[in-house]
UniProtKB/TrEMBL annotation:
Keywords: Cell cycle, Cell division, Cell inner membrane, Cell membrane, Membrane, Transmembrane, Transmembrane helix. The gene is ftsL. It is a single-pass type II membrane protein. Essential cell division protein. May link together the upstream cell division proteins, which are predominantly cytoplasmic, with the downstream cell division proteins, which are predominantly periplasmic. This is Cell division protein FtsL. It holds the Pfam family FtsL. The chain crosses the membrane at residues 18-40.
Amino acid sequence: MTTVSIENVKTKIKNPKVFYYVLLLILVLGSAVMVVFQVFEYRHDYRELSKYYRERDDLNAEWGRLLIEQQTFGATAQIGTRAVTQLRMYSPPAKQTVVISLPMKTEDKK
């Protein structure tokens, strides 16, 4: 009986080692799959973040153009006011206005 019990002990020791190796292998493979998934998610999120940065830059450029346009329209009224007040300029009446038209060439008519 002592021989049988020693063999049972040896088989019980071998099986847990194999079980632990298989379990460890499964955990390592699962960890590798999770790393690949995390890298994929990171790249996807980074691509989306880059898209938002480009959109932000485009909106900032458009905002700058709109500010310049607003300043241009404001400056036009200010120039007109200064021309009238400081330089005493005025729009001539219709009687003092002369319209000059240039003769059209045949190439211009097309």
